[in-house]
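Subgroup meeting minutes
Present: P.N., E.W., G.H.
Scribe: E.W.

1. P.N. recapped why we're keeping a running log of single-chain structure predictions: easier to compare across weeks, and new members can see raw inputs and outputs side by side.
2. G.H. added today's entry (297 aa).
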Amino acid sequence: MPIKVVECPRDAMQGWKVFIPTECKARYINQLLKVGFDTLDFGSFVSPKAIPQMRDTAEVLKRLELPQSRTKLLAIVANQRGVEEAGQFEEIAYLGYPLSISERFQLRNTHKTIAESFASLDAMQNVAIEHDKQMVVYLSMGFGNPYGEPWCLDLLAEWAERLIQSGIRIIALSDTIGVSQKEDIAAVYESLILQYPQVEFGAHLHSRPETWREKINAAYQAGCRRFDTAIRGLGGCPMAKDDLVGNMPTEKVVQYMDERGMTSKLDKRELERAYTLSEQVFAADFNPLWEKVRQAY
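Output recorded in log:
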């Protein structure tokens, strides 16, 4: 079975300190729409104070050439207000919400406790259904907890059960700061996919250049078929404290698929054009780490 590729330009862009012009964002996302990804995580409806780079998501959306693409759009939300705002756009199919097994990380990320986050998610799920949107939950600390808080497969299954009871059917397990090991990845997907066959479990893996293959392979061999990626591996969690830990590179996932003879709906020529365009979007002027990341891969 082929891999479902979810491209994440939002995740790649959101940490850039210098504002990427709206037209530049739209041009890049329009090129990505030509590639044939299953889903495009293109923007977010959150406080501009929290993520200033994404303050123009609604304007970017107006400039997208959607009729020519089969790709579905996903936007990140952090509260009910974000769901209400995103829900006004029929072009958006999915709304993503970050939830963490770690109380400490959840407070850092959304300024809510886990209990408050679950309550918010229930309310957001109801609003999303009213607007004909499907919620996608990003479950961070999916493969371990670096903060010393409790973590085990049973706890992860408990969180998944609570999400499923709320009506969530897509859960993207997140590596968060890139510390997962292939053995942990395999164990997690083998366990959850067996317990909850009705749920689509995705992989939002972060990695260093030397660990991308083993992480993809561990998840794939354990049954995962949904992978979040970003061209050149750009983006990732700023709390990783490692300049070379970024998103799973799109081109590496495609390489993995090609090596195994998987049928892919991705247009390789359009992907190459997007890869070339990304160098203009994520130029050295935007981020001093650009050259280091580029050379690493």
